[in-house]
Design a protein that fits this description.
Layout (H helix, E strand, L loop, with lengths): L1 H27 L3 H31 L2 H8 L13 H5 L3 H12 L7 H7 L3 H7 L9 H4 L3 E7 L3 H11 L5 E6 L5 H13 L3 E3 L11 H16 L6 E6 L2 E3 L3 H9 L14 H8 E8 L4 E10 L17 E3 H9 L1 H10 L6 H8 L25 E2 L15 E3 L2 E3 L5 H6 L4 E3 L7 H31 L2
Parallel strand pairs: 1-2, 1-4, 2-3, 9-12
Antiparallel strand pairs: 4-8, 5-12, 6-7, 10-11
This protein binds 2-acetamido-2-deoxy-beta-D-glucopyranose (4 copies).
C-alpha cells in the first residue's frame, strides 16, 4: 500500500527517478544481450508503474470526496438547484460534465415525502413557486388535451418532478398510488393533487404486485376515471415513477396528431418462451427474497383466449386514443379478455398489444402488419444493458435488473433519439439529468408557444 501511496502523490517524480535508475543500470551493464534484457525489463516495469498509477488515480479520485460527505449531507436535496449549465451538459462540455460527475459523487439525500406535504400545504405559494402559473400553451394544445395515468408507489419528490414536467393547465392527470405505499407517501400524493385542479387520485386503488393483473387494473382504474372527466382528452399516456418526458407538450401534441387516431405501442408476435406467460395458469405465491409476491407458473394449462383473439405481446406502456379506450371500456370482447387474463403472467404486457390488433378496433393495427418493436414504438426509450454498445451508447448512470438509470451525459442522446418518454430516470442516481431535462423541456415549450403566437400575430397584422 505504501508504494501505491508513494506513486499516487509522486507519479511524475517517480518516473524521472526511474529513468535515472535505468541509466545507471545501463552504465553498469553495457553488454548487448543485457541491454535487450534491460529493455524488456524497462517496459515491464513501465507497465507495472502505469498499472499502479492507474490504480492510484482511481484511489485519489475517490479520496477527496470522502471528507465532503458528512458536511454536505444536510444541505443536498434534489430540490436544490445545481449550479450546472445544461446547455454545456448537452454539448458535452468537459467542465460542465465534470461538475455533474462531482455532484453525483456526493451523497444525495432524497427529499422526504413529508417535505412535499409541507411544500404543498399552502397551494397558492406552491403553485407559483414551482412555476405552474407560468406554463404557457398554444391554441393548438388547448384544442387537443391529453390525459395521463401515473401509477406510482414511492418517492413523492420524484413524482412531483414528473408531474411538473408534463403539466399544462388544459390536460388532465390521474395518480394511482399503491394501497400498500407508506402513509407519508399517500399523504404527499393527496396533498399534491389537492393543489392542482386538474390532478386527481384514482377513485379505486390497488395493491400492486409485480407482473400480476393488479398492475393492469391500476391503469384501468385511472382510465375509467379519466373517461368520466369533463376534460375531453384526445390521447392518454401512462407513466410510472421512473419515467420522464423527453418532449414538451406542444411537440407531443404535434406528434400525436400525426397518428391520425392510431395508438402508439409495442405489438409483436410472441416468442415461444413468452407464450408460456399465457398458456399456463399462474398463481400468486410468496417469494422469500424482496419480501413480496409473484405470479408463479403451475402445471395447469389455460384455455385459449375468448372470441378467437390472436395473442400479441408488447410492453405495459401505451399511448392510446380516446376512441380506443372507450372501446376497451365498453366492449364485451375486452371485458372477457381481461377476465381471461387475470391468471396470466404480466398481463399488462399483452393486454394492450393484443387488443390493438383485434379487427375493427379504433386505430387497429392489422394482424398482417409486421411487429411494432420497442425500438419502433416512441412511447418509451429503455436502455437494456445487453444492447449497449451495438445499439446504444453505454449507460452513464447505473443499472437495475439490466435496465439503465440514465446519467446526465446521456442528455443529448435522450433528447435526440426520437422517443417521447424515457425510462428509467431517478434523481437519486443523477439529479443533474432530471434538472436538465426539466429545464430543456420547459425552455422548448416556452419558445415554441411564443413562436406560434408570434406567427399568429403576424398573420393577423398582414392578412
Ligand atoms: C414544514 O415547514 C415549516 C416551516 O417552514 C417547518 O417549521 C417544519 O419543520 C416543516 N415540517 C416538515 C415535516 O418538514
Ligand atoms: C400562502 O402564501 C402566500 C404567499 O405566497 C401568502 O400570501 C398567504 O397568506 C399564504 N396563505 C396561508 C393560508 O398561509
Ligand atoms: C404470504 O405471506 C403473508 C405475509 O407476508 C402471509 O400472511 C400469507 O399467509 C402468506 N401466504 C402463503 C400462501 O404462504
Ligand atoms: C367504464 O367506465 C365507467 C365510467 O367511466 C366505469 O364506471 C366502468 O367501470 C368502466 N367499465 C369497464 C369495463 O372498464
Amino acid at each position: 500500500m505504501d508504494t501505491v501511496k508513494h506513486t499516487m502523490y509522486n507519479g511524475n517524480k517517480n518516473h524521472a527517478v526511474y529513468l535515472q535508475v535505468i541509466m545507471k543500470i545501463r552504465y553498469i551493464f553495457p553488454s548487448r544481450r543485457q541491454k535487450k534484457k534491460l529493455v524488456s525489463l524497462f517496459f515491464f516495469t513501465l507497465f507495472v508503474i502505469c498499472a499502479l498509477l492507474l490504480v492510484s488515480q482511481k484511489v485519489t479520485d475517490r479520496v477527496p470526496t470522502e471528507p465532503d460527505r458528512n458536511e454536505d449531507l444536510t444541505d443536498i436535496k434534489p430540490l436544490n438547484h445545481y449550479d450546472v449549465d445544461c446547455n454545456g451538459i448537452y454539448e458535452m462540455d468537459p467542465v460542465e460534465v465534470g461538475k455533474s460527475l462531482a455532484i453525483r459523487k456526493r451523497i444525495i439525500v432524497e427529499e422526504l415525502d413529508e417535505s412535499l406535504v409541507n411544500r404543498t400545504s399552502n397551494c397558492s405559494d406552491y403553485f407559483h413557486s414551482r412555476g405552474y402559473a407560468s406554463v404557457r400553451v398554444s391554441n393548438e394544445e388547448k384544442a387537443f388535451p391529453l390525459a395521463y395515468s401515473l401509477v406510482v408507489h414511492k418517492s413523492a419528490s420524484m413524482v412531483e418532478k414528473i408531474l411538473r414536467a408534463i403539466y399544462t393547465p388544459n390536460n388532465i392527470y390521474c395518480i394511482h398510488y399503491d394501497r400498500t405505499s407508506s402513509e407519508r407517501f399517500m399523504r404527499a400524493m393527496e396533498s399534491l393533487a389537492g393543489c392542482l385542479p386538474n390532478v386527481f387520485i384514482a377513485s379505486k386503488l390497488e395493491s400492486v404486485t409485480y407482473a400480476s393483473i393488479s398492475r393492469l387494473n391500476a391503469d384501468l382504474n385511472c382510465l375509467s376515471d379519466l373517461l368520466r372527466s369533463d376534460v375531453k382528452w384526445r390521447y392518454v399516456i401512462n407513466l410510472c415513477g421512473q419515467d420522464f418526458p423527453l418532449r414538451s407538450n406542444i411537440e407531443l401534441v404535434a406528434d400525436l396528431k400525426k397518428l391520425r387516431g392510431g395508438n402508439m405501442m409495442e405489438t409483436s408476435l410472441p416468442s415461444e418462451y413468452k407464450q408460456e406467460r399465457f398458456s399456463f395458469h399462474y398463481e400468486l405465491q410468496n417469494v422469500s427474497f424482496e419480501n413480496q409476491q409473484l405470479p408463479v407458473m403451475t402445471e395447469t394449462t389455460k384455455e385459449p383466449p375468448p372470441h378467437g383473439i390472436q395473442m400479441f405481446i408488447g410492453s405495459a406502456y401505451f399511448v392510446l386514443s380516446r376512441e380506443f379506450v372507450t372501446y376497451v371500456n365498453t366492449s364485451v370482447l375486452a371485458r372477457d379478455f381481461l377476465a381471461w387474463s387475470h391468471d396470466t403472467y404480466s398481463p399488462d404486457e399483452h393486454f394492450w398489444a393484443t387488443l390493438t390488433r383485434v379487427p375493427g378496433v379504433p386505430g387497429e393495427v392489422p394482424r398482417t402488419q409486421p411487429d411494432v418493436t420497442d425500438l419502433m414504438s416512441k412511447t418509451r426509450l429503455v436502455k437494456w444493458e445487453y444492447l449497449e454498445g451495438p445499439l446504444y451508447p453505454a449507460c452513464t448512470g447505473t443499472h437495475v435488473r439490466s435496465v439503465c438509470i440514465y446519467g446526465a451525459t446521456e442528455l443529448r442522446w435522450l433528447l435526440n433519439f426520437g422517443s417521447w418518454f424515457a425510462n428509467k430516470v431517478d434523481d437519486i442516481v443523477d439529479p443533474v439529468l432530471v434538472q436538465c431535462l426539466e429545464e430543456k423541456i420547459n425552455q422548448k415549450q416556452t419558445e415554441m408557444v411564443m413562436a406560434v403566437d408570434q406567427a399568429l400575430l403576424t398573420e393577423l397584422d398582414d392578412p
